[in-house]
Amino acid sequence: PVCTTSVTTASAGTDASQCESVGTYALNGNIPSTGTGAWSILSQPAGASASIANLSLANSGVTGLTVAGDYNFAWTITSSNPACPPSIDYVKVTVNPNPVASISGNTDVCAGLATTLTASGGTSYAWNTTETMAAITTSTDATYTVTVTANGCTDVATTTVTVNPLPTAAITPNSPVVVCEGDDITLTATGGTNYV
């Protein structure tokens, strides 16, 4: 047999990247004017279970993109004439891992003192204080939230700083007391929970 009809040139769309938390993707193949199209999964990360909803639909959805790594797909347009070679194009979807945000630092401080809160898990940071460094210093009783970003993906961590009032120390009796040599006197401290 001789190929007497041209097959539509396949276009699988442009490579894309997204976050692990998204989990789905819409393929974007071209609709053939001649021939029929079919999607196939060429490769995916170990442990992944990607699935194409409709193999013959140009803009079919894909589910199961929940493992970070590269997912490679092929869009193949085949002629009804077996003598005509198929046209194939490829697209890669890169799934980036979700960052895990965390905040470390002392969250109980005494009035008049400051604490440093340090965020980790990403490459850029945005605090609800408008600061954009990984570490911030505060002496204010409040809740602090940071949005951590890495590879375009985000996660949020929150912590609360409690500022404790300074204790008022007192000793009773608090006025000069005269005792005889050899006698005992009891001094009682108040205002705190630990005494040295």
Any overview of this molecule?
The protein is mostly beta strands and 196 residues long. Helices cover 0% and strands 46% of the residues. The chain contains no helices and 16 strands. The strands form 5 sheets. It has a 4-stranded mixed sheet with strand order 1-7-6-3, with no helix packed on it. Strands 9-14-13-11 form a 4-stranded mixed sheet, with no helix packed on it. A hairpin with an 8-residue loop joins β4 and β5. The protein is rod-shaped and about 125 Å long. 17% of the residues are buried. The model has no long low-confidence stretch (mean pLDDT 94).
Enumerate the strands of the largest sheet in spatial order, edge to edge or round the barrel. Answer: 1-7-6-3
Strand content: over 45%
- Oligomeric form: single chain
Q: Main beta sheet: strand number and arrangement?
A: 4 strands, mixed
Considering DSSP H and I runs of 4 or more, what fraction of the residues is helical?
under 10%
Strands, count: 16
From the spread of the alpha carbons, the general shape counts as rod-shaped
The ordered H/E elements are EEEEEEEEEEEEEEEE
Q: Give average pLDDT, whole number.
A: 94
First-residue to last-residue Cα separation: 101 Å
Can you count the helices? Answer: 0
The secondary structure category is: mainly beta
Which stretches are poorly predicted, pLDDT < 50 over at least 5 residues?
Answer: none
Cα-atom Rg, whole angstroms? 33 Å
